[in-house]
Design goal:
By secondary structure, the protein is of the alpha/beta class. It is built from 22 helices and 10 strands. The protein is globular, with a radius of gyration of 24 Å.
């Protein structure tokens, strides 16, 4: 049975050879037999010289890694050849491949130039990677039929008798790519999620295709059976819950992985692949290594697992969609134990274990934006991702200044006292600085409303310092373990916007316009003096 985890390079990570060696050694010690490299645009494909960002993984790096660990650890490439092509289509050379102009993250499967590029990327990977398994992606292609060419192709398929033209479009793209891998003597793999929306697409895929069924909020019993019953070997794919956390939801992670292991044994599945995602936005792989080790021990059987009997029943395709919906998320949210993962932190020392318990379990108890959910952390997104940190104050101030924020502050301060090194401190300080930012903005807003622009400026200067401090943490994350360089720039962008707001308050905070713009208005990137009605906001095309 395959025992693998994936390293998400695509989210702005830099994998030096030292880091690759540490990850590979950890993988072997934890009981994994394979390590997946999730690449997207962070690999220097020979066919895409126009998309090689700074410090992208190189073919020579991969050859070195394979040579070092040949016979001990399989290095598996994970591509994306339709959806999640954003790192390509937002370059000047790559924009011609997009499904829609400056929108979404998908390429156009009816664009012959893109199809040829996808074939070249497959050929590049076949020439560089030794793995018998080549994962060609296929997940989250929600823009099928959105562009003109795709829409026309879908209509033609349906006019010719297809009950689901989007399924035909999807299969028409991925089946030949899978066959290309097979013709090279390797085995193709794809993600399984789109087959729940378009089940007829599965009929066109070569039966040798390995399906990776990812279910992050429920057991994969029924979803895996959907594929297995149609003759496809299936790898069950849980996740380490980081993208929806300030750091990581340990209890939900352990439950998710354990359930997938149990189902894999019950259904005699092809294996389990633990995914990790989105360690940009101040995620930190260095702090996750013990959790990944714990997942490996769950997969290898070192810590044992429950024997599960899955009753056969008719599978309702509609029930397979959407990761189980809000009910599944709510059921997972009740989980509070992670003994296997916490034991791995304890192996490093009591400080590590206490910190992980505080950040990975207790912090959820603060509720609201700190609670377990099915969406990305609003703190990380609103503070850093959208180039307007005041959004965090605008949308989350009631929670962050109320009881949830008070509880979180106490837990984060306790965690900071136990943080064993700079990596762990940085994750903790992100939460504390986010709370400090919102508090300072609130105080600035009150001073502004009270016609005390000087006091408002004093409070806003604290906000500027928040991003100066976060920039130092982002640089440390990059230096220590290849963390996101984009995070450094995000901090600079946020600081620049704070400084812009400071200038506006100096210019207009005493009523110089003849009116006092609301604080929400003057903090917004689109603020225009004398546009008293905020036309940039109220018109329906305002955010195009």
């Amino acid at each position: 049975m395959l025992r693998m985890w994936t390293y998400d390079l695509a989210r702005e990570q830099h994998a030096s050879r030292e880091i690759l060696r540490e990850l590979a050694d950890m993988s072997i010690a934890a009981g994994f037999d394979s390590m997946g490299l999730y690449l997207e645009h962070r690999f220097a494909y020979p066919s895409t010289p126009w998309a090689h960002g700074k410090d992208a993984l190189t073919p020579d790096d991969v050859r070195w890694l394979q040579n070092e660990y040949r016979g001990r650890l399989k290095i598996v490439p994970f591509l994306n050849l339709l959806g999640h092509f954003e790192g390509m289509i937002y370059t000047e050379e790559g924009r011609r491949y997009a499904e829609e102009r400056f929108s979404g993250m998908q390429a156009d499967p009816t664009n012959r130039a893109f199809v040829e590029l996808a074939e070249k990327i497959v050929d590049d990977v076949l020439a560089i990677f030794e793995s018998d398994l080549i994962h060609i992606g296929g997940d989250e292609t929600s823009q099928l039929g959105a562009g003109i060419g795709s829409r026309e192709r879908v209509a033609r398929f349906e006019a010719a008798g297809s009950a689901d033209g989007k399924a035909s479009l999807y299969a028409d793209h991925f089946a030949p790519l899978a066959q290309r891998v097979l013709d090279a003597g390797r085995r193709p793999a794809v993600w399984g999620d789109m087959f729940f929306d378009h089940p007829s697409a599965l009929e066109a895929m070569p039966k040798e295709t390995l399906i990776f069924d990812w279910q992050y909020f429920r057991r994969p019993d029924q979803t895996a059976r959907f594929f297995i019953d149609q003759g496809f070997e299936t790898v069950l794919s849980p996740t380490i819950h980081t993208y929806n956390a300030l750091w990581c939801h340990l209890a939900q992670t352990e439950r998710n992985v354990r359930e997938h292991v149990e189902t894999a044994h019950a259904l005699n599945a092809a294996g389990v692949c633990v995914t990790t995602w989105e360690q940009g936005l101040f995620g930190n792989y260095e702090t996750l290594l013990p959790a990944i080790r714990g997942c490996g021990k769950l997969l290898s059987g070192e810590v044992g697992h429950a024997t599960t009997v899955i009753e056969r029943s008719d599978v309702d395709p509609e029930m397979l969609k959407g990761q189980g919906g809000p009910e599944a998320v709510a059921a997972y949210a009740e989980e509070t134990e992670a003994p296997v993962l916490l034991r791995e932190y304890l192996q490093l020392g009591e400080q590590h274990e206490t910190w992980a318990r505080l950040m990975g379990i207790r912090l959820q108890g603060a509720g609201e934006t700190f609670a377990f959910s099915g969406t990305r952390s609003s703190i990380k997104c609103r503070l850093l991702l959208y180039s307007n940190p005041f959004l965090l104050w605008l949308r989350d101030r009631d929670a962050l200044l109320g009881e949830p924020g008070l509880k979180a502050t106490a837990i984060l301060n306790e965690a900071l006292a136990f943080a064993p090194d700079a990596a762990y401190r940085g994750v903790t300080e992100l939460g504390l600085m986010a709370l400090q930012f919102v508090l300072s903005v609130e105080e600035a807003a009150k001073a502004y409303a009270d016609e005390k622009p000087g006091l408002a400026l004093t409070k806003l200067s604290v906000c500027r310092q928040v991003f100066q401090n976060l920039e130092k943490i982002a640089k440390s994350n990059h230096f220590r373990f290849g963390g996101s360089l984009a995070d450094v720039e995000r901090c600079r962008t946020a600081q620049e916007h704070v400084e812009r707001v400071i200038r506006r308050v100096k210019q207009y905070g005493a009523g110089e316009l003849g009116y006092l713009p609301s604080f929400e208005t003057i903090c917004h990137p689109k603020f225009v003096p004398h546009d008293q009605g905020n036309w940039w906001l109220i018109n329906r095309w305002a955010n195009e």
